[in-house]
Task: structure prediction
Amino acid sequence: MALTVLAACGSSGNNTAAAAPPPAASAPADGGGAAAAAPSPGMPTSGTSMPGMQMPAGAGAAGPGAQAPVTGTAIDIKNFAFSPANLTVRVGTTVTWTNRDSDAHTVVSSNGPLHSPTLDTGDTYRYTFTKAGTYSYLCSIHPFMLATVQVTA
Result:
């Protein structure tokens, strides 16, 4: 079956000729040639994205550590992300999460004190941090949504 497909692609049916890579001079000047060619400057090398495609801000494998900590007391839930993704507060601070998305979300820490109900658009959840530490949490509906609150003494 594979030979039929190769023949339909313009191969002469000679397996040796079909397997040979094209000459280097035939590769496009923009680096878009064979997969073994070096990537163009500025192009990712991981093979996980396509040219012209961009991940939305806050998405990807970097997780909550990708953003510098911010101080304050409010976290917005919008565009399927917690903003800021890293918040630093002092012990005794009450933090308020507000869902600004059209989809429902939650604020849940796997082994910590954060356990919000489902937050519909416009709903808020408040928690007062009484102990210093790092509190990692996520949205249990969309577990790719990750964030942390760092509580200092």
Observations:
- Residues 1-65 have pLDDT under 50 and may be disordered.
- DSSP finds two helices and eight strands in the chain.
- The CA atoms of residues 90 and 152 lie 5 Å apart.
- Residues 2-8 form the longest helix (7 residues).
